[in-house]
Specification:
This protein has 324 residues and is an alpha/beta fold. It folds into two domains: 53 residues, no CATH class; 242 residues, Rossmann fold (3-Layer(aba) Sandwich). 41% of the residues lie in helices and 17% in strands. Helix 1 runs parallel beside helix 3.
Length: 324
């Protein structure tokens, strides 16, 4: 098993720097299963090849991770209200199952967070959420957003409260929402044990609940949208952005490309649910369309390495602001 310490050491040895985020470390832990695989991942990385090229003075061919000539991925977005509700309920059932069986592993998929071993890694698990909250505050400063004017924050897909408890140090009021009652029960208990009183928890059991959400100053969501089929992603993104207060911001991560990915509504609706986390992708142009229709503008978009193989998959994190 590849450990986070092994990944950090590989970064220092091969690239001469620290990893850019905890999510990159988690991804390598999950997707490389031996020292040989970890070494190969670094030796083939464009950053390492470029560095070697400069060191030996001989240009090397560096392959772009996502060349401009890649084809579009066919993704169907438009569905009826009935189909949308059915998709939402399918995801609800999958995550209720995960919440009852492996709630912490389903948030950060490393073997040490399985229920059998979690107790000895609990502190490390919740501390990892601090980095995610800091990413949010850092990008706000970088984009000139006055954080002191943001009083309320929605943690969308809060899970067991890994990041929520750290957002509570930043905002006066935080609402943690999730589709799984089991995850929320753990989050609420953890918050109670830590005597954190500024967080309100709510389970989103239906689309109608989301429609009726209160306006907020800020929205935070990492590694959540990707577990919903594209029509649900679009609907939720459009709905939550419509409930941002003027000048409010949303910090949202969404995978936007995978080689060979396609989404057909009819095929999906006739597939068998697996009780495991689904992984979906929403093209960037669909996200830009929703942002414009919601009377918002994009302040920043970054590649974030929050999905698996970066040779075949692309994920972006967006900082979005509601027009005043």
């Amino acid at each position: 098993m590849i450990t986070p310490e092994s990944v950090k050491l590989a970064y220092r040895l091969f690239l001469g720097r620290e990893p850019e985020s905890e999510n990159v470390i988690n991804s390598l832990c999950q997707n490389t299963h031996s020292v040989e695989e970890l070494r190969a991942a670094f030796l083939k990385s464009p950053e390492f090849v470029q560095g070697i090229s400069e060191y030996i003075g001989k240009p090397q061919t560096v392959r772009q991770r996502h060349p401009f000539h890649l084809p579009r991925i066919p993704v169907e977005i438009e569905v009826s209200d009935e189909v949308l509700a059915s998709m939402f309920e399918r995801i609800h059932q999958e995550w209720e199952h995960l919440g009852k069986t492996e709630p912490h592993w389903s948030v950060v998929t490393q073997p040490k967070y399985y229920q059998a071993d979690f107790a000895s890694h609990s502190d490390e698990f919740y501390l990892s959420g601090k980095h995610a909250a800091q990413l949010f505050t850092t990008v706000l400063r970088r984009c000139g957003v006055d954080q002191t004017k943001l009083k309320t924050c929605l943690d969308l897909g809060c899970g067991v409260g890994r990041v929520t408890v750290h957002l509570a140090d930043v905002f006066e009021r935080v609402k943690g929402v999730d589709i799984s009652a089991s995850h929320l029960a753990i989050a609420e208990e953890y918050c109670r044990d830590k005597q954190i009183t500024s967080v309100e928890w709510q389970q989103w059991q239906s689309l109608n609940q989301i429609r009726k959400m209160s306006e907020v100053d800020a929205i935070f969501s990492l590694i959540t949208f990707q577990h919903n089929p594209p029509p649900v992603m679009v609907w939720i993104l459009r709905t939550v952005l419509s409930h941002l207060k003027p000048g409010g911001v949303a910090f949202i991560q969404i995978p936007t490309y995978k080689t060979g990915y396609m989404f057909e509504v009819e095929r999906y609706m006739h597939s068998t649910p697996t009780n495991t986390m689904e992984m979906h992708f929403l093209p960037q142009h669909e996200i830009f369309k929703v942002i414009g229709e919601a009377n918002c503008r994009m302040l920043e978009m970054r590649e974030d390495a929050m999905v698996g193989s970066e040779d075949t998959m692309l994920s972006n994190t967006f900082l979005i602001q509601k027009n005043k």
